[in-house]
Structure formats: C-alpha cells, structure tokens
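Handoff note, outgoing to incoming analyst
You'll be picking up this chain. Sequence as last confirmed:
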Amino acid sequence: MTSPAVHVEHLSKRFELQQERRYSFKERVVRGRPKGVREFWALRDISFDVPRGSFFGIVGHNGSGKSTALKVLSGIYRPTSGTVEVDGRLRAMLELGAGFHPELTGRENIKMNASILGMSSREIRSSMDEIIEFAGIGEFIDAPVKVYSSGMTVRLGFSVAVNMDPEILIVDEVIAVGDEEFQRRCLDHLSRLRRAGTTIVLVTHSMGVVEDMCDEAMWLDHGQIKALGGTRDVVTKYMSQVNESEAARKEPTGAPQSELDAVRRGSGTVRVTAFDVLTDTGESVDVLLADQPCTFRLHLTGSEGIGQSAASFTIHTEAGVPLAGPLKYVNEEPLEAGDSHIDFHMETPLLQPGTYLVSTTVTAGGELLDHLDKPFIVKVRDSGAESAAGAVRLLGEWAAAHTSADPPQGGPTVPADPASLSG
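Most recent structure output, in case you need it:
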C-alpha cells in the first residue's frame, strides 16, 4: 500500500494572546512576565492523511484553523503537540507576493522570489518566459512592483509558485484573487498538476471548487475536525451547519410595519401585513433550502368585508428583474373583515441559492386595494445537494438514442448512381 503524501496525527497548535506587551529587554527585566496571558488553541488534536496524487480540500468558517493547518504543514509554524510527516517536495502558496520588493521590477522579483523558493539560476532562466506568460501582466513586467494592483501582485506570485514543479502543493484561497479569466487558468493549471501526479491541499470558501475538484475534504470548526471523508458528505454537513446558523440569527425578512404603511399604494381596505416562508412541517423560517418543499404565506388584514378579491405576488432578483409572477389567487367567496392568510405551496422549489425580493398586490373589482413593491426578502440556500448556476432549475427528463450510419435491415437504400432514379 502506498504511503500518504501527508500524514498528520494528533496535531495541536497553541498561541499565547497577551493583553500587555514588553517591547524591550529592559521592560521584561523590570516589569517581569506580562500579565493577562491567554491561551488560544488554533488546532486541537486533529489527525488526517492526504493520499499521494489526490486533491484534498479543507473548508470551514473564518478563524476555524484552516490557514494555521496549512502553515504547520508548510513548516512555517511548529506544532505544539502531535506529528506532521510530509513525504515529497513541498511548495506552498500562502499570501502570494508578500515577499516582493516594491522598488524592484516584476522580472527582478521573479528572480529573487524563485531563488528564495529554491530554484537554481538555470531553472529560473528556463522558466522565466513561462512565468511571465502565465502571469499575463504584459508590459508591467518591467515596471516596479509598487505600481502593481493587488491582483497583479498575486498573479505574479502564483505564476512563480506553480512553476516550481512541486510534488506536494499547498494552496490557501489564492485562486479567489484576480479576474474570471485568470481564476480559470489557475484551476486549469491545478488540474494539470493533479493529472501529473501532484498532491494538492487546498483551502477555499468555494464549495463549487471543492465539489468539482477535490477527492476528499475536511471540515474544521474552532480548530477541531467536524467531518472528514468524501467530498459530497463533508460539503453537505458543512452547508447544513451554515444554513442552521443563518436561520438561528432570525434576521428580518421584510420591512417593519410602519415602513410598509409608508410605501404601500391602494385604498387600504385589505392590506398585506407579512410574507412568510414555511417548511413542509409548517415552521416559519428565514432561510429556504433549495431542494425542500415549502409554502409561501401572505398575511392579510381587512378593515371591512368585501366581495370577490384577488391577491398575487411576484418574485424578483436582487437587481429587481422579475423572475416569476404575478402568481394570482382569486377568492370567489366574500372576504370578511379581520385577519386571514392564503398559502402558495411548492413541492419542488425551482429557485437556485440566492436572495430574492417579493412584491404583493391585492385587488377587488378592478380596484387596487394594496400594493407593496419588493419589501419582502426570500433567502434560498444550498442544502448540500448537487446544484448549478443560474436563478432557476429546469425539471425534465433526459432521453438518449443511438443514431447509426448504416441503414436498417430491409429498409430502402440509396442507389449509388443517381441516374437510376429516372424512369
């Protein structure tokens, strides 16, 4: 059995947080040890293996210990306890461009940075053109780095790092910097390294990148492993926790009643007072999961009874583009004064993860009773199931058929000589 490229066993990393600092040797002698020293465990007893030649993803919220784990793997931090075994030539892409000298040109910084990373003069000369082409910063390569944008600096740093021919590559969220075209080139290059047998450990907040590229994943939370194993299982568990945390915050999904009254139009005989999202169990939630049944509930209040009426709502994107609606409910029965509600149920919501705005309208006999323009918010989040880009999902069935170039047996054939068709 092949040994793993990275083996981590019972790894912990502790930092000391000091409320007071001693800035000189004299202060340390006279005033003694700083008071108020507090221990902070960035990592606590984590163990995992990264198989050789695999793509391993690490996910978690900010401050969960992801970057600390990479710095321990890279040798920047020494573990407080536990062991880390790295079998192979390792290169790390952490805080790219941090070591560049602002007064030197991009070309000069490539030479200096590559030398620091261990490349020989011959290797630097042979790789220079490839590094410059990959960075794609054009004529700025011979300008001082101090005039570069942050994105250009990271592009140059990434270009140097990926041309180091690593056996193990550590990547910390650097592919999120730069324009769309450069990000695609980064991902394509990582895929080529993977096909060549490079072991890659990636920290990212993009669940799409984790699902598309990683063989295995690990979810860190407050320095401890919450899930480890197959990518789909880890992402599903992580997204479930994110959705639960967002729902627990109970952020308002609409404007206060006073603000609604200030912007509504219509006679006001019947008004929409609230718009709720309900789960299939009838629970009101602030966050709707993309693949679960739900009900939209319009709360109404009437100052007096009316005859036949109609209520509708329209869903818009955050940019205000109408996405669906108006979805109308016509009430044939007289509507009594007081509070009531109507429900719109969806067994399979077609909305993709995102934030949407809802407008509502109530009419009766051609008269506008109430209208509110996009005051209500519907948040749709990924449940961890497979999803794609776009605002909506299209439900349908695929069918495949094999088309043969040979004519069916016993069927008509086309004569080789067109002249034989005459007469």
